[in-house]
Amino acid sequence: MDRIDLVYRVLDEQLVDVDGRRCGRVDDLEFEGDIGDPPRLHAILSGSGTWHRRLPRPLRAFGERIFGVGVSGRDVIHVPWTQVDDISSVVRLKVKARELGLGQGDERNAMLVGKLPKS
Amino acid sequence: MKKIFQVALGIIAAIGGFVDIGELVFNTQAGADFRYQLLWAVPVGVLGIIVFAEMTGRVAAVSGRPVFDVVRMRMGLNVGLVTLVASLLINLITLAAEVGGAALVLQLLFDVNVSTLILLSVMALVVIVYFVPFGGIERIFGYLGCALLVYVAAAVHLKPDWHQVGRGLVPSWHPSALYAYFLVGVIGAALVPYEVYFYSSGAIEERWTLRDLNLNRANAFLGFALGGILSIALIVVSGEVFFGPHIQPGYLGTTALGAQHAYGEVGLLLALLGMLFAVGGAAVECAFSGAYTLAQFAGWEWGKYRRPHDAPRFTLAWLTFFALAFVVVETGVDPVLLTEYAVIFSVVALPLTYLPVLLIARDRTFMGDHANGLVGNGLGWLYFAILLVVSLAAIPLTLITAAGSH
Question: pTM for the complete prediction?
């Protein structure tokens, strides 16, 4: 792939799974690598548990209470960069959202909405 | 031929769907207080919404991005969150005003307790939205809202001084805070952001592609411009009927009396029917817009084209919006007052959603050959400047004039 500006083209973009289901946003990016070594993009982080870290410093404690502290697998989902299939107007994934733990909120509420008529 | 017919139907729906409680309140008051002197604010606001809506429709068709997708992506999380919270609150106030307005119109028609009518209005809207497909909803309210065209007929029938009307369409200035307040209000009533969120998300719902760019232009230019004629007619009728005898149309029903003055009972009934479907349609757009903004910002699955079970948080969001609006209106707050605050706060927050759309619409990385040209950019930045001025003036003017009361 050509050079890509991660903040311009990836951060805050819509995540869509292999079935075309919208399943979250690119809320943060995780890099790995030792100090002095070139950093490598390791994973996309998705979930409101990352939001407090991006707020202005005085608002972070408040943000933790509102959006969650960032519990992996619950309010933050790690999406390995290797699972990204394509970047266009969305970030398309190679697998189903469920396999990565994405879209849990929709799945929880689907039970409730499923009880409505013609749902 | 079929395509032309479809475009024509879309335009008719856009005309009927253009006017909402904001125009019914602000334009009638502007006509009553200043006769034709604020007519020029209508084309300023209408051209603004044409520019904004055309860009959002084009961005949706070309890049597949609705407004709040663009807000999140271009403005980032922090400014995006501020925009989201402001938009959700404004949507809720507007929805409450529209629901309250629908109940007031029903009360004039059926003389039943207003509290019961609020409940019935919300229930009817929820049932229609839940069971009728997207295109059907747009058309039911759009076509029946066209009954408001009685105001255009009334404006001609009342034989206004056309020379004065023409002079009203030329920008003028009066050194009065009340004049400036209604100037902001009339521009703001035409430029309500929920219509644009709904329009752009609707383009995604209807799976617009590059082939729909002409449809986008037709809807935006013709639909909104012809809708603007209704807006002008409201001011002209109000200027003819209420300005002379110094009648203050502080009650929504007073607006309908303008049509009655021209055509008697038939005029009154058409006006009330048109108002009912105009505010009902606007209520649906508001509830959906709230759910669209929330879902797009957070990345949830959304869309009326999905079964409720497949977009559950989106479905719960619009249902919750109706429930919250119901609670707000049942407190007994005056829908006319709610409308004024909704329009003023919309104006204040408007640059926050307008700027990211403009930035994307002119960006060739995302839009390719369909990015704004010279004229599009010129108009885009001109309106951004106008919106900034109007946005900064809105709150001080509201405080100075006590929301238009002196």
Answer: 0.93
